[in-house]
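hiii, so i know i said id send this last week but things got crazy w the move. better late than never?? heres the sequnce for the chain we talked about at the cafe, plus the structure i predicted for it. fair warning i was half asleep when i ran it
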Amino acid sequence: MEQESQLTRLGLFDARVPRYTSYPTAPHFKPTVGAADFTRWVQEIPAGAAISLYMHVPFCRRLCWFCACRTQGTQSDAPVRAYADVLLQELELLKARLAPGVRLSRLHWGGGTPTLMPPDMMRRVAGAVFDAFPLAEGAEFSVEIDPNEIDEARMDALAEAGLTRASIGVQDFDPEIQKTIGREQSFEITAQAIRMIRDRGIQSLNTDILYGLPHQTPQKIADSIQKLMALSPDRIALYGYAHVPWMAKRQVMIPDDTLPDAQARLRLFEVARDLLVADGYDEIGIDHFARPGDGLAVAQRAGLLRRNFQGYTDDLAQALVGMGASSISRFPQGYAQNAPATGAYTKAIREGRFSTTRGHVFTDEDKWRARMIEALMCDFRISADEFIRDHGFTQAALAALFAPVKAEFGDMVQLDDSGLSIPEPGRPLTRMIARRFDGYEMEAKGHSPAI
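okay and structure toks below
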């Protein structure tokens, strides 16, 4: 109760804070970055480099009410096939501008529902990608799989294409919750999809589950977590549901009065976390859990855990190239986002040009702020040695930077000559503490960032 009282006093239960999968976050991107910048940044990737490639498929058979992703519904394959043709055209544009020998450290198909693609289309897209860019040693090919939109033929196509990691969204197994969020997906159909994955020798499995959903109680989330653990995923993302109906219009279908309050959300998270840790999962950052042998757990122990638009990652590639409508790329020079609307994206690619409509060019300050935020999100610690070595800080400059954060959060942060860290009781505040290093967010709210 004392910890909850402190968290309340510090504003945890009233805060709306970015998830910090990028810095600056996407709302701060500007239209001053366009296709010419994207092209130049692609051309500056060194020959032989390993890059990550994300391909976005924005179509779904049904639009889940809880989802805030940019998606569109379709009951036929025709728009999906037409879109895949455009993706392949974009791939050719990219291939023509990349230096020789570029390889893939990661390939991820996300959405939407990538498994809407028929088997022949999956083979065609995967074949074109690997013809253009071979996989680097130890590379991963992952796909988001909807258990309601997968069958033996499509699973065969993914396995033959070289799938190494499958990702399945669970959200919650409770029927009342599923009905309220517009996502009916039984335990049995989820288990069946996982059996198809395992039967083809694909051992790496991610699953997503949400807390803070309508009608969710500690008993209900405990039951869902126990069912999920029975399926033996090696990586679990435990995300907080973000109810933002003013941004994601379909969320108006979810009655506000069915949602747990902020204190109840924290208890739901703690119930789920305690069950996962008791079952042997390592806690990774603020919202992931992994078996000790999983790549995220290994990276965390080695101090190599990173954060990108897919959440936590062990991928150390310097460039992540996003393909498809609304995709975001990250280069050492900055961020570039494709046109969000499928029509605008398609028009640009068919005219032989990239569809970048906005982004951000990094300043030197952006780079050190981004790394500080990432370090807090991944390791709950900003190392003084790292920032003295890599960013030219002095011990005195760091002390001045950290002092207002310590003054605001008190015992929820620890401060000494080795740097600033967040002890266990303060970790629910990690995003709020990270925000104090976010120059754009604090300026937008009329506050001075830590500097």
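btw The mean pLDDT is 94. thought thatd interest u
miss u guys!!
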